[in-house]
């Protein structure tokens, strides 16, 4: 039996969400489409393994590849931008827009590929697929503050470093919706709070908190999560996420001072998170931890441990 086609949802004012069916699973990685005066703007490509789902989703939405005129990525981590090289061929009339700090890694992904294989080992290739270089003449470097016309308003690039130095979010002024990538964590549908997204190699918690404040000052109504979907009461969500990150930071630091092995810190984070996910839930089997398919405890432990070491919070 053939797999069901990717989910395409209307978000209002012509905006669309496409489920990229990462890991052949619904509700893990989303991309967003915005109509504009000269065609469509797409935010996030997902990895190359999602190329087929993206193509089918666009066809279901009635959008031809030539109608996509801009492809933005929030940052160059592979679950968001691994398919940008493939998108260059898929969308022949599109500009490809990425933070200026990520441009060199898109043109020559050699170091990015090496980093991914160190983190994921043999699982890297089937998980992410090939990482194709992006033609330099198709790339547009962003730093935050740029504005692009869309139907009924603008997309405003907002610098939101912390999760990564090269992270951008995008405010849709029409819906007052912030496409937040990983800057506000991972909040899959059905979850009551966002899980911290705090991976290596360049996590910076001070910048992360400053970025949350910057997003809140823009007073969005909605957060559009890459993992996954829209969530209302955005300013409250941002405040809640800050508390979650602070809690993970404190628990991980105490664990690292006791035993700095990644496995130990990850187990402490897992127990903390599972206790909160099951708090108030009816008795019975624990809910399935789908969030770990995009934001695992081991990567969080690695990111926080590196942050503690580079900020002098642990012995050298």
Average pLDDT, all residues: 92
Strand content: 15-25%
Give the oligomer, counting copies of the same chain as homo and different chains as hetero. single chain
Q: Count of helical segments?
A: 10
Biggest sheet, in brief?
A: 7 strands, mixed
Looking at CATH, which topology of the largest domain would you report?
Metallo-beta-lactamase, Chain A
Radius of gyration: 19 Å
What characteristic shape results from the CA principal axes?
globular
Our measurement of the CA-to-CA distance between the termini, rounded to an integer number of angstroms, reads: 55 Å
What is the domain tally?
A: 2
Order of helices and strands: EEEEHEHHEHHHEEEEEHEEHHH
Low-confidence stretches: 280-285
Please, what is the CATH homologous superfamily of the largest domain?
Ribonuclease Z/Hydroxyacylglutathione hydrolase-like
The top-level CATH class of the largest domain is Alpha Beta
The portion of residues assigned to helices is 25-40%
Strands of the largest sheet, in order across it? 1-2-3-4-5-6-7
Any guess at the CATH architecture of the largest domain? 4-Layer Sandwich
Task: Please provide a written account of the structure.
By secondary structure, this protein is an alpha/beta fold. It has two domains: 8-243, Ribonuclease Z/Hydroxyacylglutathione hydrolase-like (Metallo-beta-lactamase, Chain A), CATH 3.60.15.10; 249-310, no CATH class. The chain is 35% helix and 21% strand. The protein contains ten helices and 13 strands. It has helices spanning 51-60, 78-81, 84-90, 103-107, 110-120, 124-128, 205-217, 234-258, 262-278, 297-310, and strands spanning 8-12, 15-19, 30-36, 39-43, 68-72, 95-99, 139-142, 147-150, 153-159, 168-172, 177-181, 222-225, 229-232. Helix 8 (234-258) crosses helix 10 (297-310). The longest helix is centred in the last third of the chain and has 25 residues, at 234-258. The radius of gyration is 19 Å and the shape is globular.
């Amino acid at each position: 039996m053939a797999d069901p086609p990717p989910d395409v949802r209307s978000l209002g004012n012509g905006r669309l969400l496409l489920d990229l069916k990462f890991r052949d699973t619904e509700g893990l990685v989303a991309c967003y489409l915005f109509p504009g005066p000269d065609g469509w703007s797409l935010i996030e490509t997902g990895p190359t393994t999602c190329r087929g789902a993206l193509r089918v989703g666009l066809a279901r939405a009635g959008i031809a590849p030539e109608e996509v005129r801009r492809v933005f990525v929030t940052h160059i981590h592979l679950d968001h931008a691994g398919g940008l090289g493939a998108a260059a061929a898929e969308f022949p009339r599109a500009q490809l827009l990425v933070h200026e700090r990520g441009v060199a890694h898109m043109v020559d992904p050699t170091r990015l590929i090496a980093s991914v294989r160190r983190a994921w080992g043999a699982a890297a290739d089937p998980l992410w697929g090939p990482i194709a270089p992006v033609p330099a003449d198709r790339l547009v470097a962003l730093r935050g503050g740029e504005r692009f016309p869309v139907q009924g308003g603008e997309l405003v690039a907002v610098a939101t470093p912390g999760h990564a130095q090269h992270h951008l979010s995008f405010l849709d002024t029409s819906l007052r919706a912030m496409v937040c990538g990983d800057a506000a964590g991972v909040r899959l549908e059905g979850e009551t709070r966002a899980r911290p997204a705090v991976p290596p190699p360049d996590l910076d918690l001070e910048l992360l908190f400053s970025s949350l404040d910057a997003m809140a000052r823009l007073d969005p109504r909605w957060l559009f999560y890459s993992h996954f979907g829209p969530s209302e009461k955005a300013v409250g969500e941002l405040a809640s996420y800050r508390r979650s990150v602070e809690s993970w930071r404190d628990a991980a630091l105490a664990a690292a001072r006791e035993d700095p092995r990644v496995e130990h810190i990850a187990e402490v984070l897992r127990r903390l998170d599972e206790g909160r996910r099951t708090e108030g839930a009816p008795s019975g089997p624990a809910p399935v931890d789908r969030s770990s398919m995009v934001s695992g405890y081991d990567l969080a432990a690695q990111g926080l441990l590196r942050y503690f070491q580079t900020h002098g919070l642990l012995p050298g």
